[in-house]
Every structure is written in C-alpha cells, then in structure tokens.
Amino acid sequence: MILVTGGTGLVGAHLLLQLTQGDEPVRALYRRAETIKKTKHLFSHYNKQELFEKIEWTEGDILDVPSLEPALAGIDKVYHCAAYISFDPADEEKLRKINIEGTANMVNVSLALGIRKFCHVSSVAALGDLKFNEIIITEETEWNPEKFHSDYAISKHGAETEVWRGWQEGLEVVIVNPGLIFGYGFWNQGSGEIFKNIDKGLYFYSKGTCGAVAAEDVANIMIQLMESEVSGEQYTLVAENISFETIFNAIADGMHKKRPFIYATPFMTNVAYRLDWFFSKLLFRPRHFTRTMAKSAHRHQNFDNSKIKETLNYNFGDIKSHLKQIAKDFRSLS
C-alpha cells in the first residue's frame, strides 16, 4: 500500500491522480477535512471522479508522531510531498519545524515500521551554489553555508539531511528537486497565484530565469523512480530553464490578456520589497514581496536535468504549451 503526505497540495494531488490509475491501494494524509476539496476538484476537472473514491483518507499531522504510526501501518511505499512554502522571514520557525522536523518524523516512523522505499519532494532551492568557474547547477553542486539562502531553502536543505540520515540507517530513498512547478488548480498558493495576478492585469515583468516543470511530469517521474531499483539518489526535475518574462507572456497569451509590459528593474524591485515590508508592519499583514523574491526576479539560474533524463530515458513536456493550456483552463472558470 502507498501513503502520500501533502495530498491536498499541487504535487501531492497530481501524484494521487496518477497513483489511483494503478492497482496498488493508496492512502493519503490530511490535517483539515476541508482541504480535501481542492484535490477532489482536480479529479473532477480531469473527469476522474471515480478514481478519487479509491483514496483512503486518514487524518494525521507530520508534526504529531502518534498520528503517523497508524497512518503508516501496512504501508510499503511513502511519497512525502508535505511541506510549507513561504519566503516571508517571519515564517522562519514554521518553515524549519514543518519542513525539517516534519520530515525527520516521517523518516523515523518509516524506519521503525520497516517501510520499503521513501520518496522525498525537495526543491531546486536546496541544491548547491555555483563556484566562480561553474555555470550550471547539478545534483553534485556543493551547498555553501557562507552564502545567502532563503529560510525556505535552508529548511528544504535541512529536510534532505534528514532523508539522507534515513538512507544511512537502512531506508531506501530517492529525492527529487523540482523547479517552479506549474499545474492546474490551487490558484491561491505557489505558482497558481501567477495565473490570478495576470488575469487581474499584471503590468510588470523581470528578466531573471528559473527552472520550470509541469506537476504531471514531477508526479510521473516520482512514480517511475519508486518502481525502479534506484535508491540513494537525487534528481533535478526541470523541463526548461526559462525567463519569468517568457512565463508571464505564455500565460497571458493563453488567457488572451495583455502581456506585462513594464520592465521591473533591480532598483524598482528593491524599492518594492522595502515598501512591502513597511506596509506589512503598518497594516499587520503578511509579506507579499520579500527581499528573496526581489533577488530571484533578476537571478539567472540554469539547472542540469540530464541525470533524470538518462536514468529514466525521460522526455519532459513543452513547458510553454503547458502554461498556455493551464491559462486557458483557468480562464474557463470565470
């Protein structure tokens, strides 16, 4: 039997959509019953309502060890997708607790119950830092603790450390490091907010680059890795290194909206994140645009996906076509 944590999030929900098409029974962990509706909506969008009924939902929390023991009882394989994503410095403690301590709990219970294989969803943010003579980030790029990293990146790197500890103690593991993930649904979080902002009329764009990937590809690769003999390896999951300008334009085109047309210079984004800090204090609201986000808007990062392509002979889908299709689907909701 399979257990999925984070099944009410973007990756976990798309993973459940694919897993339920197989023969193995699937169990999914949830904290609040109302969040299951988002996953159910995803299944409905793809006309797979009958597959949703195959999921055995069980209440639990990765920070509550006693709740994990019955959740993992009878489980053979674990897909650990649950994580907290934030670039607000105020969330540092929450990030470390959920992403590091929560992952440690999952690893410990998996070891105690004799789980056969464990797949951990990390992030390209947890990969290493380029040296002066390097131009592309791979799984072998070394993490430099002396360099600036967001609290989110530090928490995901710490989570990976817990998974590697589990591997050293006898747990079969694979780690995937996806780039910016795009998929249908979950419009109020992560990459989904980009579609909402462009639909409302986004004026600004930047020329930084990132690694982008479809949620469907991430889920497909995870399943293939878990069905393989691979263990003790991690893989960068990036379909394409692409500029934010290209991403925004593809989404705008899919929505038949005006493309963002004002270039947000580094000076403008530096002013913007400081103003956002000021208004967050004044209005007692969460941060919407942080220093980390301002830096990322202009950073040119290139990730090497050759390891996963060679291991599985895998071909990623075209990310621009994928973005346009999601944008069309989003527009059809209004």
UniProtKB/TrEMBL annotation:
It holds the Pfam family Epimerase. It comes from the Bacteria. Gene3D superfamilies: NAD(P)-binding Rossmann-like Domain. GO terms for cellular component: cytoplasm. GO terms for molecular function: aldehyde dehydrogenase (NAD+) activity. Coiled coil: none annotated. Residues 2-235 form the NAD-dependent epimerase/dehydratase domain. This is NAD-dependent epimerase/dehydratase family protein.
